[in-house]
Design goal:
By secondary structure, the protein is an alpha+beta fold. 26% of the residues lie in helices and 16% in strands.
Length: 132
């Protein structure tokens, strides 16, 4: 029996893939953008602890202890242990920090949620800084 998964292709349409998920080659020189997938994987694995966790709605996440996050969790999933590098990637992918309401100080992106892992292929790295 062969498992068939639906995943996004480079033209943002749905395609069937066997054995492994195909990720769009949308980054520089056609390299797949891995940050959103690694971030989601990290949150799924580490959200039971007190260092980083999803919001109750599953649409945002909070880093409760930045120093422990940098020392213990970042090196497991990313090639860096610098929080500033992680935060820069969040900004490049369009995540914002919520400044009001019940999800205060949580990071949010409209296309990123706990329940929509398939939607990760829609997140794209910004190529230009937003105009202020």
């Amino acid at each position: 029996v062969e498992t068939i998964k639906m995943s996004c292709s480079s033209d943002d349409s749905m395609t069937m893939a066997t054995d492994k998920t195909h990720y769009p080659r949308t980054g520089k020189r056609g390299v797949p953008q891995t940050f959103p997938r690694k971030l989601h994987k990290m949150l799924e694995a580490e959200s039971e602890g007190m260092i980083v966790h999803w919001s109750s709605s599953g649409r945002a996440f909070r880093i409760a202890n930045v120093s422990l996050f940098s020392e213990e969790i970042l090196p497991k999933y990313f090639k860096t242990s610098k929080f500033s590098s992680f935060q820069r990637n969040l900004n490049l992918y369009g995540f914002t920090k919520i400044r009001k309401g019940p999800e205060l100080d949580m990071y949010f992106h409209p296309g990123f949620s706990r329940s929509d892992k398939d939607g990760l292929c829609q997140l794209r790295k910004r190529t230009k800084a937003p105009i202020k």
